[in-house]
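Q: Could you fold this chain for me?
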Amino acid sequence: MCLAEILNMLGIFAFPALLPHFIELWDLSNTQAGWISGIYFAGYTVSVPILGGLTDRLDPRRIYLCSSLVGMGAALGFAFLAEGFWSALIFRILAGFGLAGTFIPGLKALVDRLNEKAQPRAIAFYTAAFSLGTALSFFAAGFLTEHFGWRQAFGCAAFTGALGFFLAARVLRPQPPSGNPKTQGHFLDFRPVLRNRQSMGYILAYSSHTWELFAARSWMVAFLTFALTLQPDGSTPFLAPSSVVALTALVAMWASVGGAELAVAYGRHRVLRCIMWGSALFACTLGFLPALPYPILAGLCMLYFLFVQGDSATLHTAAIQSAQSEYRGLTMAFQSLVGFSAAFISPLAVGLVLDLSGGGSSILSWGLAFASMGLVVALGPVFIALLCEKATSRAS
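A: Sure. Below is the predicted structure, expressed as C-alpha coordinates.
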Protein backbone atom coordinates (compact mmCIF):
# COMPACT_ATOMS: atom_id res chain seq x y z
CA MET A 1 0.00 0.00 0.00
CA CYS A 2 2.92 2.35 0.64
CA LEU A 3 4.24 1.62 -2.86
CA ALA A 4 0.80 2.10 -4.41
CA GLU A 5 0.51 5.44 -2.59
CA ILE A 6 3.87 6.58 -3.98
CA LEU A 7 2.94 5.58 -7.52
CA ASN A 8 -0.36 7.45 -7.30
CA MET A 9 1.41 10.60 -6.10
CA LEU A 10 3.88 11.21 -8.92
CA GLY A 11 1.84 14.13 -10.23
CA ILE A 12 0.86 15.65 -6.88
CA PHE A 13 3.63 18.28 -6.78
CA ALA A 14 4.48 18.40 -10.47
CA PHE A 15 2.99 21.88 -10.76
CA PRO A 16 4.80 23.40 -7.71
CA ALA A 17 8.04 21.77 -8.93
CA LEU A 18 7.65 23.61 -12.23
CA LEU A 19 6.16 26.78 -10.77
CA PRO A 20 8.73 29.27 -12.17
CA HIS A 21 8.37 27.63 -15.59
CA PHE A 22 4.57 27.95 -15.61
CA ILE A 23 4.67 31.53 -14.27
CA GLU A 24 6.77 32.48 -17.30
CA LEU A 25 5.00 30.20 -19.80
CA TRP A 26 1.45 31.33 -18.95
CA ASP A 27 2.31 34.84 -17.64
CA LEU A 28 0.86 34.10 -14.18
CA SER A 29 0.90 36.42 -11.18
CA ASN A 30 2.06 35.00 -7.84
CA THR A 31 -1.56 34.99 -6.69
CA GLN A 32 -2.68 33.02 -9.76
CA ALA A 33 0.16 30.57 -9.24
CA GLY A 34 -0.94 30.21 -5.64
CA TRP A 35 -4.49 29.47 -6.79
CA ILE A 36 -3.31 26.66 -9.08
CA SER A 37 -1.15 25.19 -6.32
CA GLY A 38 -3.92 25.54 -3.75
CA ILE A 39 -6.88 24.42 -5.87
CA TYR A 40 -5.50 20.88 -5.76
CA PHE A 41 -6.15 20.86 -2.03
CA ALA A 42 -9.50 22.58 -2.48
CA GLY A 43 -10.57 19.59 -4.58
CA TYR A 44 -9.28 17.34 -1.84
CA THR A 45 -11.09 19.33 0.85
CA VAL A 46 -14.45 19.32 -0.95
CA SER A 47 -14.46 15.59 -1.57
CA VAL A 48 -12.66 14.09 1.44
CA PRO A 49 -15.62 14.44 3.87
CA ILE A 50 -17.74 12.33 1.55
CA LEU A 51 -15.12 9.78 0.51
CA GLY A 52 -13.53 9.52 3.96
CA GLY A 53 -16.85 9.37 5.79
CA LEU A 54 -18.03 6.55 3.57
CA THR A 55 -15.11 4.34 4.62
CA ASP A 56 -17.02 3.40 7.81
CA ARG A 57 -19.90 2.10 5.63
CA LEU A 58 -18.15 0.77 2.52
CA ASP A 59 -14.97 -1.22 2.04
CA PRO A 60 -12.33 1.53 1.52
CA ARG A 61 -10.85 -0.63 -1.25
CA ARG A 62 -13.71 0.28 -3.59
CA ILE A 63 -13.31 4.01 -2.93
CA TYR A 64 -9.54 3.79 -3.37
CA LEU A 65 -9.68 2.09 -6.76
CA CYS A 66 -12.32 4.41 -8.24
CA SER A 67 -10.45 7.49 -7.03
CA SER A 68 -7.20 6.19 -8.45
CA LEU A 69 -8.84 6.21 -11.87
CA VAL A 70 -9.92 9.83 -11.36
CA GLY A 71 -6.33 10.82 -10.53
CA MET A 72 -5.06 9.09 -13.66
CA GLY A 73 -7.60 10.95 -15.79
CA ALA A 74 -6.65 14.30 -14.24
CA ALA A 75 -2.96 13.75 -15.02
CA LEU A 76 -3.75 12.80 -18.61
CA GLY A 77 -6.01 15.84 -18.99
CA PHE A 78 -3.30 18.20 -17.74
CA ALA A 79 -0.75 16.57 -20.03
CA PHE A 80 -2.83 16.94 -23.21
CA LEU A 81 -5.29 19.79 -22.61
CA ALA A 82 -3.89 22.33 -20.10
CA GLU A 83 -3.21 25.65 -21.85
CA GLY A 84 -3.33 28.30 -19.12
CA PHE A 85 -4.78 29.41 -15.80
CA TRP A 86 -8.38 28.18 -16.12
CA SER A 87 -7.69 24.82 -17.74
CA ALA A 88 -4.94 24.15 -15.19
CA LEU A 89 -7.41 24.89 -12.38
CA ILE A 90 -9.87 22.32 -13.73
CA PHE A 91 -7.41 19.45 -13.98
CA ARG A 92 -5.70 20.24 -10.70
CA ILE A 93 -8.98 20.21 -8.79
CA LEU A 94 -9.82 16.84 -10.38
CA ALA A 95 -6.43 15.59 -9.25
CA GLY A 96 -7.37 16.74 -5.75
CA PHE A 97 -10.49 14.56 -5.94
CA GLY A 98 -8.23 11.62 -6.79
CA LEU A 99 -5.96 12.29 -3.81
CA ALA A 100 -8.96 12.52 -1.46
CA GLY A 101 -10.10 9.06 -2.48
CA THR A 102 -6.69 7.38 -2.24
CA PHE A 103 -4.75 8.83 0.71
CA ILE A 104 -7.27 8.60 3.57
CA PRO A 105 -9.27 5.60 2.24
CA GLY A 106 -5.94 3.84 1.66
CA LEU A 107 -4.91 4.55 5.24
CA LYS A 108 -8.31 3.40 6.51
CA ALA A 109 -8.05 0.18 4.46
CA LEU A 110 -4.64 -0.43 6.03
CA VAL A 111 -5.80 0.30 9.61
CA ASP A 112 -8.85 -1.95 9.19
CA ARG A 113 -6.59 -4.87 8.29
CA LEU A 114 -4.14 -4.48 11.22
CA ASN A 115 -4.41 -5.01 14.97
CA GLU A 116 -4.12 -1.94 17.21
CA LYS A 117 -0.59 -2.74 18.39
CA ALA A 118 0.73 -2.69 14.83
CA GLN A 119 -1.10 0.48 13.83
CA PRO A 120 1.26 3.26 15.07
CA ARG A 121 4.26 2.00 13.11
CA ALA A 122 2.17 1.16 10.04
CA ILE A 123 0.60 4.63 10.10
CA ALA A 124 4.08 6.14 10.44
CA PHE A 125 5.37 4.29 7.38
CA TYR A 126 2.26 5.04 5.33
CA THR A 127 2.37 8.76 6.11
CA ALA A 128 6.14 8.76 5.54
CA ALA A 129 5.52 7.23 2.11
CA PHE A 130 3.59 10.42 1.36
CA SER A 131 6.88 12.30 1.72
CA LEU A 132 8.69 9.82 -0.51
CA GLY A 133 5.96 10.27 -3.11
CA THR A 134 6.41 14.02 -2.79
CA ALA A 135 10.18 13.70 -3.30
CA LEU A 136 9.74 11.58 -6.40
CA SER A 137 7.08 13.99 -7.68
CA PHE A 138 9.45 16.95 -7.46
CA PHE A 139 12.40 15.02 -8.86
CA ALA A 140 10.49 13.35 -11.70
CA ALA A 141 8.78 16.59 -12.74
CA GLY A 142 12.10 18.43 -12.96
CA PHE A 143 13.95 15.59 -14.68
CA LEU A 144 11.25 14.69 -17.21
CA THR A 145 10.53 18.32 -18.05
CA GLU A 146 14.20 19.04 -18.65
CA HIS A 147 14.64 16.07 -20.99
CA PHE A 148 11.20 15.56 -22.54
CA GLY A 149 8.87 18.45 -21.68
CA TRP A 150 6.28 19.20 -18.99
CA ARG A 151 3.42 17.43 -20.81
CA GLN A 152 5.38 14.19 -20.80
CA ALA A 153 6.01 14.66 -17.07
CA PHE A 154 2.27 14.70 -16.37
CA GLY A 155 1.73 11.80 -18.79
CA CYS A 156 4.24 9.75 -16.81
CA ALA A 157 2.26 10.52 -13.64
CA ALA A 158 -0.83 9.00 -15.28
CA PHE A 159 1.14 5.86 -16.14
CA THR A 160 2.47 5.36 -12.61
CA GLY A 161 -1.06 5.96 -11.30
CA ALA A 162 -2.19 3.00 -13.38
CA LEU A 163 0.53 0.87 -11.79
CA GLY A 164 -0.63 1.98 -8.33
CA PHE A 165 -4.21 1.04 -9.21
CA PHE A 166 -3.30 -2.51 -10.20
CA LEU A 167 -1.03 -2.98 -7.19
CA ALA A 168 -3.72 -1.88 -4.71
CA ALA A 169 -6.30 -4.05 -6.44
CA ARG A 170 -3.95 -7.00 -6.05
CA VAL A 171 -2.97 -6.62 -2.37
CA LEU A 172 -6.24 -5.38 -0.84
CA ARG A 173 -8.68 -8.23 -0.45
CA PRO A 174 -12.38 -7.26 -0.23
CA GLN A 175 -13.51 -6.87 3.38
CA PRO A 176 -16.74 -5.83 5.13
CA PRO A 177 -16.84 -2.21 6.42
CA SER A 178 -15.76 -1.59 10.02
CA GLY A 179 -18.69 0.60 11.10
CA ASN A 180 -22.12 -0.38 12.39
CA PRO A 181 -24.88 1.38 10.39
CA LYS A 182 -27.38 0.83 13.24
CA THR A 183 -25.40 3.06 15.62
CA GLN A 184 -24.23 5.63 13.08
CA GLY A 185 -26.00 8.76 11.93
CA HIS A 186 -25.58 10.41 8.54
CA PHE A 187 -22.13 9.80 7.09
CA LEU A 188 -21.53 13.59 6.98
CA ASP A 189 -22.67 14.16 10.56
CA PHE A 190 -19.44 15.29 12.24
CA ARG A 191 -20.95 15.95 15.67
CA PRO A 192 -19.42 12.79 17.23
CA VAL A 193 -16.00 14.07 16.16
CA LEU A 194 -16.64 17.62 17.39
CA ARG A 195 -17.64 16.26 20.81
CA ASN A 196 -14.36 14.37 21.13
CA ARG A 197 -12.03 17.00 22.67
CA GLN A 198 -8.88 14.93 22.27
CA SER A 199 -9.50 14.24 18.60
CA MET A 200 -10.31 17.90 17.97
CA GLY A 201 -7.09 19.03 19.64
CA TYR A 202 -5.01 16.79 17.39
CA ILE A 203 -7.05 17.74 14.32
CA LEU A 204 -6.51 21.47 14.87
CA ALA A 205 -2.80 20.88 15.51
CA TYR A 206 -2.73 18.86 12.28
CA SER A 207 -4.22 21.83 10.40
CA SER A 208 -1.38 24.02 11.69
CA HIS A 209 1.05 21.39 10.42
CA THR A 210 -0.53 21.14 6.97
CA TRP A 211 -0.64 24.95 6.63
CA GLU A 212 3.12 25.13 6.94
CA LEU A 213 3.89 21.88 5.12
CA PHE A 214 2.02 22.59 1.90
CA ALA A 215 2.87 26.28 1.78
CA ALA A 216 6.55 25.41 2.13
CA ARG A 217 6.35 22.67 -0.49
CA SER A 218 4.41 24.86 -2.92
CA TRP A 219 6.82 27.81 -2.74
CA MET A 220 10.23 26.28 -1.92
CA VAL A 221 11.28 25.88 -5.56
CA ALA A 222 10.41 29.51 -6.26
CA PHE A 223 12.29 30.58 -3.09
CA LEU A 224 15.44 28.71 -4.14
CA THR A 225 15.12 30.08 -7.69
CA PHE A 226 15.08 33.60 -6.21
CA ALA A 227 18.10 32.70 -4.08
CA LEU A 228 20.04 31.77 -7.23
CA THR A 229 19.60 35.33 -8.51
CA LEU A 230 21.50 36.56 -5.43
CA GLN A 231 24.49 34.27 -6.00
CA PRO A 232 27.73 35.52 -7.60
CA ASP A 233 27.55 35.89 -11.38
CA GLY A 234 28.37 32.75 -13.28
CA SER A 235 27.93 30.37 -10.34
CA THR A 236 26.23 27.10 -11.21
CA PRO A 237 24.02 25.38 -8.62
CA PHE A 238 25.20 21.94 -7.60
CA LEU A 239 21.54 20.88 -7.51
CA ALA A 240 18.56 22.40 -9.30
CA PRO A 241 15.88 23.83 -6.97
CA SER A 242 13.44 21.04 -7.85
CA SER A 243 16.10 18.44 -6.94
CA VAL A 244 16.80 20.17 -3.62
CA VAL A 245 13.09 20.09 -2.77
CA ALA A 246 12.94 16.43 -3.77
CA LEU A 247 15.74 15.71 -1.31
CA THR A 248 13.96 17.68 1.42
CA ALA A 249 10.98 15.39 0.96
CA LEU A 250 13.22 12.34 1.35
CA VAL A 251 14.60 13.83 4.56
CA ALA A 252 11.03 14.51 5.67
CA MET A 253 10.05 10.88 5.13
CA TRP A 254 12.53 9.65 7.73
CA ALA A 255 11.70 12.59 9.99
CA SER A 256 8.08 11.45 10.08
CA VAL A 257 9.04 7.89 11.07
CA GLY A 258 11.63 9.14 13.56
CA GLY A 259 9.18 11.58 15.12
CA ALA A 260 6.68 8.77 15.66
CA GLU A 261 9.33 6.62 17.37
CA LEU A 262 10.37 9.55 19.59
CA ALA A 263 6.73 10.11 20.56
CA VAL A 264 6.44 6.51 21.74
CA ALA A 265 9.70 6.75 23.70
CA TYR A 266 9.41 10.23 25.26
CA GLY A 267 5.74 11.14 25.18
CA ARG A 268 3.53 12.38 22.39
CA HIS A 269 2.83 15.91 23.66
CA ARG A 270 6.42 16.69 24.65
CA VAL A 271 7.76 15.64 21.24
CA LEU A 272 5.06 17.56 19.37
CA ARG A 273 5.88 20.75 21.29
CA CYS A 274 9.58 20.47 20.49
CA ILE A 275 9.03 19.74 16.81
CA MET A 276 6.28 22.28 16.06
CA TRP A 277 7.83 25.19 17.95
CA GLY A 278 11.23 24.33 16.47
CA SER A 279 9.68 24.40 13.01
CA ALA A 280 8.08 27.79 13.71
CA LEU A 281 11.41 29.27 14.79
CA PHE A 282 13.16 27.81 11.74
CA ALA A 283 10.54 29.20 9.33
CA CYS A 284 10.72 32.69 10.83
CA THR A 285 14.48 32.64 10.20
CA LEU A 286 14.94 30.78 6.90
CA GLY A 287 13.04 33.23 4.70
CA PHE A 288 15.52 35.98 5.53
CA LEU A 289 18.55 33.92 4.44
CA PRO A 290 18.36 33.51 0.62
CA ALA A 291 21.62 35.45 0.15
CA LEU A 292 23.60 32.69 1.87
CA PRO A 293 25.81 30.54 -0.38
CA TYR A 294 23.47 28.24 -2.27
CA PRO A 295 24.88 24.92 -0.91
CA ILE A 296 24.45 26.17 2.67
CA LEU A 297 20.92 27.39 1.97
CA ALA A 298 20.03 24.04 0.38
CA GLY A 299 21.31 22.23 3.48
CA LEU A 300 19.25 24.51 5.73
CA CYS A 301 16.13 23.77 3.67
CA MET A 302 16.69 20.04 4.19
CA LEU A 303 17.20 20.58 7.91
CA TYR A 304 14.04 22.70 8.03
CA PHE A 305 11.99 19.83 6.66
CA LEU A 306 13.14 17.59 9.50
CA PHE A 307 10.96 19.82 11.67
CA VAL A 308 8.20 20.42 9.12
CA GLN A 309 7.46 16.72 8.68
CA GLY A 310 8.62 15.37 12.03
CA ASP A 311 5.16 15.70 13.60
CA SER A 312 3.10 14.25 10.75
CA ALA A 313 2.87 10.56 11.66
CA THR A 314 2.45 11.36 15.35
CA LEU A 315 -0.52 13.66 14.68
CA HIS A 316 -2.14 11.09 12.37
CA THR A 317 -1.75 8.31 14.91
CA ALA A 318 -3.02 10.49 17.76
CA ALA A 319 -6.16 11.53 15.88
CA ILE A 320 -6.95 7.96 14.77
CA GLN A 321 -6.35 6.29 18.13
CA SER A 322 -8.28 8.97 20.07
CA ALA A 323 -11.38 8.32 17.94
CA GLN A 324 -14.17 5.89 18.77
CA SER A 325 -13.77 2.79 16.62
CA GLU A 326 -17.15 3.17 14.89
CA TYR A 327 -16.28 6.78 13.96
CA ARG A 328 -12.68 6.24 12.94
CA GLY A 329 -13.28 6.85 9.24
CA LEU A 330 -15.42 9.89 10.04
CA THR A 331 -12.64 11.26 12.28
CA MET A 332 -10.04 10.73 9.57
CA ALA A 333 -12.32 12.46 7.07
CA PHE A 334 -12.84 15.46 9.33
CA GLN A 335 -9.12 15.62 10.05
CA SER A 336 -8.42 15.78 6.33
CA LEU A 337 -11.22 18.30 5.77
CA VAL A 338 -9.78 20.70 8.33
CA GLY A 339 -6.14 19.98 7.52
CA PHE A 340 -6.40 20.28 3.78
CA SER A 341 -8.58 23.35 4.02
CA ALA A 342 -5.45 24.87 5.55
CA ALA A 343 -3.38 23.29 2.76
CA PHE A 344 -5.63 24.98 0.18
CA ILE A 345 -5.48 28.41 1.80
CA SER A 346 -1.81 28.52 2.76
CA PRO A 347 -0.18 28.56 -0.74
CA LEU A 348 -2.61 31.33 -1.71
CA ALA A 349 -1.90 33.21 1.53
CA VAL A 350 1.85 33.04 0.91
CA GLY A 351 1.32 34.26 -2.66
CA LEU A 352 -0.66 37.21 -1.33
CA VAL A 353 2.06 38.02 1.21
CA LEU A 354 4.63 37.96 -1.59
CA ASP A 355 2.53 40.19 -3.87
CA LEU A 356 1.80 42.67 -1.07
CA SER A 357 5.45 42.88 -0.03
CA GLY A 358 7.05 43.44 -3.41
CA GLY A 359 6.24 40.38 -5.50
CA GLY A 360 8.90 38.11 -4.03
CA SER A 361 11.69 40.24 -5.48
CA SER A 362 13.39 41.04 -2.17
CA ILE A 363 14.72 39.24 0.90
CA LEU A 364 12.16 41.04 3.08
CA SER A 365 9.32 39.73 0.90
CA TRP A 366 10.42 36.11 1.30
CA GLY A 367 11.18 36.60 4.98
CA LEU A 368 7.63 37.75 5.63
CA ALA A 369 6.22 34.88 3.55
CA PHE A 370 8.07 32.24 5.59
CA ALA A 371 7.23 33.99 8.85
CA SER A 372 3.53 33.69 7.95
CA MET A 373 4.01 29.91 7.83
CA GLY A 374 5.88 29.80 11.13
CA LEU A 375 3.32 31.80 13.07
CA VAL A 376 0.56 29.34 12.12
CA VAL A 377 2.46 26.14 12.97
CA ALA A 378 3.32 27.63 16.37
CA LEU A 379 -0.39 27.37 17.25
CA GLY A 380 -0.34 23.55 17.09
CA PRO A 381 0.94 22.87 20.63
CA VAL A 382 -1.48 25.51 21.91
CA PHE A 383 -4.45 23.55 20.53
CA ILE A 384 -3.09 20.34 22.09
CA ALA A 385 -2.64 22.00 25.48
CA LEU A 386 -6.12 23.55 25.46
CA LEU A 387 -8.05 20.48 24.28
CA CYS A 388 -6.06 17.25 24.58
CA GLU A 389 -4.28 17.82 27.89
CA LYS A 390 -7.39 19.27 29.55
CA ALA A 391 -9.46 16.34 28.31
CA THR A 392 -6.89 13.91 29.73
CA SER A 393 -6.86 15.63 33.13
CA ARG A 394 -10.67 15.61 33.29
CA ALA A 395 -10.75 11.89 32.47
CA SER A 396 -8.24 11.26 35.25
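A (continued): The longest helix spans residues 197-229.
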